């Protein structure tokens, strides 16, 4: 009979030795009871990867009274932005020896409230929470404030006092406007998400600030707010083409909006980068593979996922007051912005 060799399970002590720490320190870090300097946490993560450490989640959950799982709530897993964000959180969770549970809500309040109940039921230890709609009656904010083990990611909910991780939306709008103005564009339109969402407003404000600081004749001639959706991008682009012939450049607030815009431009025979210039926000999809690669404001998805996971662990440790992190974005130049004389 052929003998099957079984690989010896790597122990927490071996990970601690490789990282130059005590087993107790590593155990407390992985369970969210200890916050360590970034250089130290990286040593632990490297030791876990190099040794192939796989924690015994069942044993740990019994001993600590925890699930050792983090929940991630997102509005739409079909949206490349949220799918890439989920992958970033999963990698961060795996590096820290945690499980991640993905919950998709279809951006519906009732589903969000249901998933928030996972905390009380002990299914997950903390939630990283992303929403994409307004909270006019404060119902969501009230539920979120009921448990400090929630980290808001990507979008704010007014009236909440929680750990929060956002990209720098204002900086992104400013960089987009600055780039268009430097290339000679003076009549710029903005196609944004819902006007009652922080991200859509801040991206618009950044664009306006770029126009104001340019000191020239550039202007934002139209703001078309709507949903972060393909249909809104299409209808807004139709309106611009039909009623705003002087517009030479458009700043799109998301890749989903961009897709709708491109469909209309293609149907109308309008060439991006020649007849009209575009900068989009997100850069989550393969924009470099389009017939005319689209210039974009890139969100730091990997860093956002890692920071949110670290904040989730901080919320469990309860040793720090909630903080808000705004991570810098970058302008990725491609071929969709023409230089005007």
Give short descriptive properties of this protein.
341 residues, alpha/beta, 434 Repressor (Amino-terminal Domain), Rossmann fold, six-stranded parallel beta sheet, six-stranded mixed beta sheet, 17% strand
Structural class by sheet pairing and helices: alpha/beta
The low-confidence runs, each spanning 5 or more residues with pLDDT under 50, are 1-6
N-to-C order of helices and strands:
HHHHEHEHEHEEHEHEHEHEEHEE
Overall shape: elongated
Q: Order of strands across the biggest sheet?
A: 2-1-3-4-5-11
Report the sheet with the most strands, covering strand number, pairing sense and barrel closure. 6 strands, parallel
The proportion of residues in beta strands is 15-25%
Name the CATH homologous superfamily of the domain at 169-299.
Answer: Response regulator
Level of helix content? Answer: 40-55%
Q: What can you see in these coordinates?
A:
With 341 residues, the chain is an alpha/beta fold. It has helices at 12-19, 23-30, 38-51, 57-64, 80-95, 109-121, 139-144, 169-182, 198-214, 230-243, 255-268, 301-317, and strands spanning 69-74, 99-104, 126-129, 150-153, 163-167, 187-192, 219-225, 249-252, 277-282, 295-298, 324-327, 330-332. Among the domains are: 1-54, 434 Repressor (Amino-terminal Domain), CATH 1.10.260.40; 169-299, Rossmann fold (3-Layer(aba) Sandwich). Helix content is 44%, strand content 17%. The strands form two sheets. Strands 2-1-3-4-5-11 form a six-stranded parallel sheet, with helices on both faces. A six-stranded mixed sheet has the order 7-6-8-9-10-12, sandwiched between helices. α9 links the parallel β6 and β7. α1 (12-19) packs across α2, α5 packs across α12 (301-317) and α10 (230-243) crosses α11 (255-268). The N and C termini lie far apart (80 Å). Mean pLDDT is 91; it is low at 1-6.
